[in-house]
Structures are given as C-alpha cells and as structure tokens.
Amino acid sequence: MAARPSLPESILRRVRAEFLEMPGLKLTVSQAQRLWGMDRQTCAMLIDELTTSRFLRWTKDGAVVLNASAVGG
Fold it and tell me: Does residue 24 fall inside a structural domain?
C-alpha cells in the first residue's frame, strides 16, 4: 500500500484558521476548491484530513463545517 502524500502544515493551519475565524462557514468541495485555489484531488485530501481528525464534519447536504466539539462547543 503506497503512502498517502501529506499536505503542508501551512495549508492545514490556514484552513483551520478560516473555519475558526468564521464559525458559520459551510463549504462544498467545489466551493472550497475555488476559495483555496486548489485542484479537486488536493482539496479532497485536505478535507479528508480535517474530517478524519474531527476538526470538520460533513453535513447532510454534502458540505463541511467546523465540528463544534473540535473547539469545545
């Protein structure tokens, strides 16, 4: 099994900061791609990492939002 490429910590910090600064931020993968200027594969990898770590969570309508438990809420 090949190792999964990792994302630069600076990108992860930037995206975490955006969700913490705007707690109501709700993005689909397409919206996130445009906002962060990423290709779909990189954006999906980023979202996967942040949902796996439970910083973000998926909504029923296919968007990601800040997971309230990630910030003690």
Answer: yes
